[in-house]
Amino acid sequence: MYIAISKRKENIAEYILYLWQLEDLLRALQFSPEAVYSQLVKPRGLDAAAEQELLVWYMDIVNLLETEGKAEKGHLDHTLHLIGDLHNLHLQLMKLPAGETYRRLYAALLPELPRLRELTSKSDTLSREEISDTELLFRALYAAMLYRIKDGDKAKGAIEDVLRFVSPVVAELASVYRKAEQGEIDLFGESK
After folding, report:
1. How far from chain centre, in Å, is Cα 53?
2. Rounded to whole angstroms, how far apart are CA atoms 50 and 29?
3. Which CA distances in Å does 175 have to 55, 167, 182?
4. Cα–Cα distance measured from residue 129 to residue 127, given in angstroms and rounded to the nearest whole number
5. In terms of CB atoms within 10 Å, which of 44, 45, 82, 181 comes out highest?
6. Interatomic CA distance for residues 63 and 68, integer angstroms
7. To 10 degrees, the CA torsion angle through 69, 74, 77, 83?
8. How far is Cα 141 from Cα 133, in angstroms, rounded to an integer?
9. pLDDT tens over the chain, length 192 residues
10. Looking at residue 68, what DSSP letter applies?
11. Is residue 147 within 8 Å of 163, Cβ to Cβ?
């Protein structure tokens, strides 16, 4: 909870990826309150009230996953809505003066999008057309993160490609999002 709050304020992309990782971790713990407590809450060494608050927060996420029909796979609507917001920002940055740096980074990534779309669609129930370019980038980053954990050196080339092409685009998008959210930038004009 505390990490999520911090990430939400600092970097929307890290926040989304953190929640996706948390969804998978809660699934691995089979949504068991006892397992969540022993693996995620107790090791933090919090006082009883903070432990209770943290456990309730984790179980609220479990309840959302179950309510949204995503107990086995998929991502919370909350994160998908945030990605939708980021995609709307992406579309604006492709046209507005404030998007000059973003457009340059995105242009370097553009030739890689068909390959990324092909790779991510193989393991997903959504068709290629249903996934926005922005969601595709998040899926690629998350897959690279999982491959790094799971396969290490075997997936090194694919991970490096994703990080080289995708990371700068998502980082810039997240940076502009934070600046716009905090009123530090006017998307239709210059930085403040």
Report:
1. 24
2. 21
3. 31, 12, 11
4. 5
5. 82
6. 8
7. -170
8. 12
9. 878 888 888 999 999 999 999 999 999 999 999 999 999 999 999 999 999 999 999 999 999 999 999 999 999 999 999 999 999 999 999 999 899 999 999 999 999 898 888 877 665 555 555 799 999 999 999 988 887 777 656 556 667 777 888 999 999 999 999 999 999 988 886 544
10. T
11. no
Asked whether 16 and 10 are in contact (CB, 8 A), the reply is no
Rounded to two decimals, the pTM is 0.89
| 38 secondary structure, DSSP code | I
Closest by Cα among 110, 127, 102 to 180: 102
Angle between helix 113-121 and helix 133-150 axes, rounded to 10 deg: 60
Name the token pair of 42: 């107790």
